[in-house]
Each structure stands twice: as C-alpha cells, then as structure tokens.
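cron nightly-structures :: item 1 of 1
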Amino acid sequence: MSIINHQKQWDFLIRKFESNQLSHAYLFSGFKNLGKKKFAKEFIKLINCSSENPPCQKCFSCQSIEKEIFPDFKILREISEKDSNSENQEEIKISQIRDVQKFLSYKPYYGRFKSVLVENAEKMNQEAQSCFLKTLEEPRGDTIVILLSSKPNLILPTIHSRCQVIKFFGKPIFTKENIDRQNKIFQDIIKIIPLTFAEKFKYTKSFDFEKQNLSEVLEVLQKYFRDALLAKIGIGQDYLKNYSVQKLKKDIELIEEIQTKIMFSNVNQKLALEILLMKL
C-alpha cells in the first residue's frame, strides 16, 4: 500500500499493526487538505480487512468503510448552529461525544475494531473535550479512535498525552513565495552552522514556532547536507573543507532522526532545534 507523501507515517502504522502494538487513540495533525482523512480511512480498512493482504479494497469491510457505512465505523463532525448573535457557530457538542461513548461501549459487530474518526477535532467545545477525555481514559481493547486536526494547539494537553501523535507534512508547492522563503532559510543556515554554541542558542530563542514551520527548516537542512555530501564526493567547495564524508553522513542521519521524533511524538520543538544545531 502506498500513501502519496505520507509513506513514513504509513510504514510506522504497518509495523505497529503487524507487531500487535496499536494504540487505542491517535491524533493526526497537519495543515488542511493533506489527505489526513483518506489516510485515516485506509488505516481503518487495514485493521478491519478480511483479506490476507490488507487493505484489499475489495472485501465488505474495505468497501463499506470507504462508503462510510461500515457498522463498526463512525465519523464525528461539527454541527453548525446559530448562536445568540444569529451567527453560524460550528462545534462538536457533548451530546455527540456521549453518542460516541455509547457506540464504543458495544463489541464490534462485524470487524475487529470499533473505530471512530473525529474530523476537525479542535471544534470540540470545552464540555465535549472534557467528556471525550473520559473515553480515552477508559478504552476498550477493541476500539480505535482517530482525531484529525489542523489546529492541535486548541485540543486539551491531557487529550494529546493519551494519543499517539502522528504529524503530516505536505510536499512543497513551488511558488515564488515558497522558493524565496526556502532560499532565506538556506542563507540563514549557511550563516548559522559555523557559529558558536552561544550564538546558535540565541538563534533558537528568536525562532518563531507559531509563524515558521520547523519541518520546512529540517527539509532545507537535509537538502543542504545531502548537496554538501554530493559536492564533497565530487567537486570540492571552500565552505565544505571542514566536513568529512563521514561527518556529512552523520549530520544527515541526525536531521532524519529529529524529523522522525517530530513526526511521531510530542517532542519540544524548541529543544529539538537547539539540540540539532548544537550537534551540527
């Protein structure tokens, strides 16, 4: 099974499934329109497929999950209602969470797992989130809950801590704005790498994690060291004279390690960036 742009995340879940180490709850976070819902449905097919090579896309489970009519699969979405100011307010309410709790209280009717997919999980209001927390605190062994969110910072930290967090990143769009931004990151990297520990630490202090995307910085770093490795093997350049092939390979591995930690855990991004720069 190949999931475009999200192969690492898929391979991670495959390994967990095959080793019988699935979590009872997942938080899929990332910008909108990255295919998180499609990915989640493929995952639910995987764990409920009746074929020897799941997901087969042909069995009753796979086809009914795709159509969202599988008896052991429920999707939770926000409800749009007008508030006191006659404005549409979209949120997931506590009554919906109680329906989910009732749904999960029954054993699977057809599949291996009862599965709930919560779209735009950040739309749960405070009451709903508090109620939902109880669902995560007392999970059944045959239930899987998946939260989808483009704004995970609006979800309670206690919900985060009870979920396996998997982050989704999009392929860069080659607009002038994106190219200019990545060029600036590249120029910053060239300036930062030779600096002292104190100067690198100062840079991490000024990094705005709300406005800047750390994953994009890591991608540019990875390209920088890969290009440097190729140049070192082939045509030498002055700024590479202090790098051996072994050191460049080690730096690439370090960047990939940090990328994996950011993708699959609630790692402190500021600390991750500090550690990375100190080791480069």
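cron nightly-structures :: done
The chain has a mean pLDDT of 82.
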